[in-house]
Amino acid sequence: MDARPSAQTPPVTQSKWAFLRGELRPKGKVLTAFNVLTIPILVAAAVILYFRFTRGLGAVTNLDQNFPWGLWIGLDVMTGVAFAGGAYVLCFLVYVLRLEQYHPIVRVTVLNGFLSYVFYAGALLLDLGRPWHVVNPIIGNSFGLTAVLFLVAWHFMLYMLAELVEFSPAIAEWLDLRRVHRMLSSLTVGAVVLGITLSTLHQSALGALFLVAENKIHPLWYSELIPVLFFVSSIFAGLAMVIFEGSISHRVFYDRVGPALRARHDEIVFGLARIAGGAMFVYLFLQLLAFVHGQNWVHLTGRWGAWYVFEIVGLVAVPMMMLLVGHKHRNMTLVRVASLVTMLGVVVNRLNVSIIAFKWYAPRHYVPSWMEVVVTAAVISAELWVFRWIVRRMPVLGFEPAWAKPAGREAADEMVARTM
Q: What is the per-residue pLDDT across 179-212, written as a single tens digit (0 to 9) for each?
């Protein structure tokens, strides 16, 4: 096996600026299906955002005083942040529980989590009527200490910084900054502890936002357990994203995948499937508890009851069983399909709480405009562009330089490579 480094380490005679200029050039084909599909979306979104910031939200969205939160909040923020939960879960497994078998995917998972927060939480700026006021919780102008959004804002900012510190050793390895790498690596454990603490709080805080909307959310989706449900769902949502994204990356970036990840990929996926299935079982129990406590039997009749049963049974219970059976019988196809269905279930649940079942009694309901859909697609596309750029250049999926590996890990990777 040809174990080449994943980044072009700049030679001594080459300046860092020359190296960076070379790294800005495309790596691979330019005319790919992904580029052809996403470039028009990004251009269209740029035009739409021009009108949004010059003429206001009403020019491009279907938002109004009755429905101030739409697709950009319900999907980009509420759902996107849940899918980023894999980062804190993997860091907890590796750095706290010391489950080293998951170490090969920590870096790519942290990268995915960091970019999710940057783009999806950053998409919050698109929805703010006065986006320049976003700095108020930081600079002290109308702190809003009693608002849940104040808590969420600070958590988002601090968590993005923590994830950047966790990923920064990969940047130092890419640029061959050995002293900086040692300093950044020493901060990893502290950043992980801070990141895990912040995640457990702001994942639930997103659900706590809806506790004040008891009379506006359909009883089947409202309960005092919404913060806990948001937190638990972020665990299996993040793991499902790791399985789904990892399966694609393993194919698309196969030449960037190191020997340790290649050898352990299947076992890692099956292990994550078991953990995700367990988290989904806890989620189902909490949903049943909320259902019984709220005495919601009467609401099971009609289309809302059918929609609720479809979400709980078809998009939670069924993929949970698929994950557990797939883990038991080592069925990779079943696990991958289950992860996709699980992600769909999280999307449906978050949209139900924030949009679909919100003011369900209103005669005229919010439906996103085509321009909102295009901007959402552009946010996702832009994240994928940045993710691809980084993975193509930095040691994200393996092939760290020998000087950056802890004692013993290089020998272990070589042993794994020889057994492949």
A: 999 999 999 889 999 999 888 888 898 898 899 8
What is the distance between the alpha carbons of residues 229 and 352, in angstroms, rounded to a whole number? 13
> Which letter, b or e, does each residue of 181-212 get, where b requires 16 or more Cβ atoms within 10 Å of its Cβ?
beebeeebeebbebbbebbbbbbbbbbbbbee
- For the chain, domain boundaries: 60-400
What the block records as the tokens of 218 is 């359909």
Is the confidence at residue 13, as pLDDT, over 60? no
CA 195-199-201 angle, 5° bins? 125
The Cα–Cα gap between 108 and 116 comes to 12
Q: Which CATH class is domain 60-400?
A: mainly alpha
Measured at the CA of 275, the angle between CA 273 and CA 279, to 5 degrees, comes to: 115
Q: In 3D, which of 382, 384, 401, 403 has the Cα closest to residue 392?
A: 384
DSSP 300-357: GSHHHHHHHHIIIIIIIIHHHHHHHHHHHHT-HHHHHHHHHHHHHHHHHHHHIIIIIT
Q: Write down how long the chain is.
A: 420
Distance CA 379, CA 53 (A): 16
Nearest to 113 by CA among 169, 171, 160: 160
Strand partners, 90: none
The pLDDT value recorded for residue 414 is: 52
CA distance 225 to 285: 12
0.85 exceeded by pTM: yes
Strand partners, 217: 358
Q: Which of the residue ranges 82-86, 128-132, 183-187, 317-321 has the most confident prediction, judged by mean pLDDT?
A: 317-321
Rounded Cα distance, 290 and 294, in Å: 6
Report the DSSP beta bridge partners of residue 358.
217
Does residue 319 or residue 20 have the better pLDDT? Answer: 319
Which two three-digit tokens encode residue 393?
A: 């250049």
Convert the pLDDT of each residue in 36-56 to its tens digit. Answer: 999 999 999 999 999 999 999
